[in-house]
Each structure stands twice: as C-alpha cells, then as structure tokens.
C-alpha cells in the first residue's frame, strides 16, 4: 500500500529537455542559419537532378559507364548487297510488292516454324 510509511520528498533538480532535432529539422533554414552563426561545420551536397523537372530516364543512366567500359564491338553484321538484289529480282519475277512478299514469307515461316532464310539459301533459288 502506497500510503503506509514516512513521506519523503526528493529535492534534486530535474531538467526537462526537448528532443534532439531530427534530420528534417536539421535541414530547416532556421537551423542552418543558427549553425552558421554558432560556427558549426555545415556540409552541403547537391543531389543528382535535384530541383529539376527532368525525369530520371531523360538523362544519362548509371549504366553509361559500364557501356563506355565495354571494349566489345556490338555492331550488327551487314547484309551483302547481293542479297538485296537477289531478293528484289525474285520479287519482281513473281510480280509481288514488298508488302506482299513480307506477308507471304512471314506466314510461311510461322506456319512451318522455320527460321528466316539465310543468304546462302537465297542463292540456290
């Protein structure tokens, strides 16, 4: 029971303090100015694309350095000019337009599940 026994008082001073400022309060303009007046070190860092209205995809990506470091040649192989002329001649012999030839070759390849013809095969026709 709390009411039984002698009553004593504790006269030691109690100090009540405010909470330490959080990160958002430290970035406040008043807090920064107060730190400048007191001579404290202030570090300012500009974030990438901070304060701009540009999307992250519109600027260079972080993978740009990786792509620049690549030494491998990533160009596609060129198709010989003879292939172009061979296809054009075969198309004209059958009196087909480019769109008709594309539709016919695509539908044939899809129906037979064949890969697209190669240049070496085109010379045999």
From TrEMBL:
Compositional bias ranges of the Polar residues kind: 51-64
Entry keyword Nucleotide-binding: no
GO molecular function, one term: DNA binding
GO cellular component, one term: nucleus
Residue spans of biased composition, Basic and acidic residues class: 65-76
Transmembrane region(s): none
Region (Disordered), start-end ranges: 51-76
The keyword rRNA-binding belongs to this UniProt entry's keyword annotation: no
Keywords: DNA-binding
Domain Multiprotein bridging factor 1 N-terminal positions: 9-79
Name of this protein: Multiprotein bridging factor 1 N-terminal domain-containing protein
Species this chain originates from: Punica granatum (Pomegranate)
């Amino acid at each position: 029971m709390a009411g039984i026994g002698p009553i004593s008082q504790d006269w030691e001073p109690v100090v009540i303090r405010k909470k330490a400022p959080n990160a958002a309060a430290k970035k406040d303009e008043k807090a920064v100015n107060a730190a400048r007046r007191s001579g404290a070190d202030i570090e300012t860092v500009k974030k990438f694309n901070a304060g701009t209205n540009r999307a992250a995809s519109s600027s260079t990506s972080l993978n740009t350095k990786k792509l620049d470091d690549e030494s491998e040649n990533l160009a596609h192989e060129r198709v010989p000019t003879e292939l172009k002329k061979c296809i054009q001649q075969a198309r004209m012999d059958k009196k087909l337009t480019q769109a008709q030839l594309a539709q016919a070759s695509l539908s044939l390849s899809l129906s037979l599940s064949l890969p697209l013809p190669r240049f070496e095969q085109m010379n045999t026709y």
